[in-house]
Design a protein that fits this description.
Length: 228
């Protein structure tokens, strides 16, 4: 089997991390009789330096023509420390999410016994931790309308979610929960945000289709006492 993989090392430690990931994939090739075709392209600050934009058309084209995208890291302090920068590395990542429909960020959180002593959390707190975070990636404040008044003294970022955006990530989370501990917690700020109240409404309705999954809710300020 031949699989095309787009390599986007990006900035900072990205190239270093990606190089090690490719070594792992080369071991997979040998073990499972696969053939990976790797093609590299710039994204982020390095792309701005080379092409003037954080996500060049050639990079996007490569991603769309590939079976998978292996992404390193993105960002540069010179942009972080310049509030007047109009073009930023992170814009490339957000555009890539939108163009490829990458709406689900899936983050497993495990505690490994051999690493417990390295954790800043107490061993008895972190031991046995095993949960997965599903985060919606193409809606919300990152993608909402942004405004700055003429004087440059008032700014706003619109946090907007649609029922469709909430529904598709919620279904993924419920399906995953069915194959794990059959428990799902929605973490939000429904006590003050209208968008969070929509999340609760939509997720509660979807939960009726998954009667074997226990659904509860947690305000993010209480996260420390609920996720474990």
């Amino acid at each position: 089997m031949t699989i095309k993989i787009a390599l986007l090392p990006g900035d900072g430690v990205g190239p270093e991390v990606l190089a090690q990931a490719v070594k792992c994939l080369e071991a997979v090739e040998e073990t499972f009789n696969l053939h990976f075709i790797f093609k590299e392209a710039p994204v982020g600050a390095i792309a701005i330096a080379k092409k003037g934009v954080p996500l060049p058309e050639s990079t996007l084209k490569l991603c769309k023509e590939s079976d998978a995208v292996l992404f390193g890291a993105i960002g540069d302090p010179k942009y972080d420390n310049n509030p007047n920068a109009k073009v930023r590395p992170e814009q490339g990542l957000l555009q890539l999410r939108k163009e490829l429909g990458l709406f689900a960020n899936i983050r497993p959180v495990l505690s490994h016994p051999t690493l417990l002593n390295k954790s800043p959390l107490k061993k008895e707190v972190i031991s046995g931790t095993d949960f997965v975070i599903y985060r919606e990636l193409t809606g919300g404040i990152y993608f909402g309308e942004k405004k700055l008044n003429e004087e440059g003294t008032v700014a706003s970022d619109l946090c907007e979610y649609s029922e469709r955006e909430i529904s598709r990530i919620a279904h993924l989370a419920f399906k995953a929960a069915k194959n794990r501990k059959r428990k799902l917690t929605l973490v939000d700020k429904a006590n003050v945000l209208e968008s969070s109240r929509l999340w609760r409404k939509v997720v509660t309705k979807i939960g009726e289709s998954y009667p074997d999954v226990a659904l509860d809710f947690c305000l993010w300020t209480m996260l420390r006492c609920r996720l474990f």
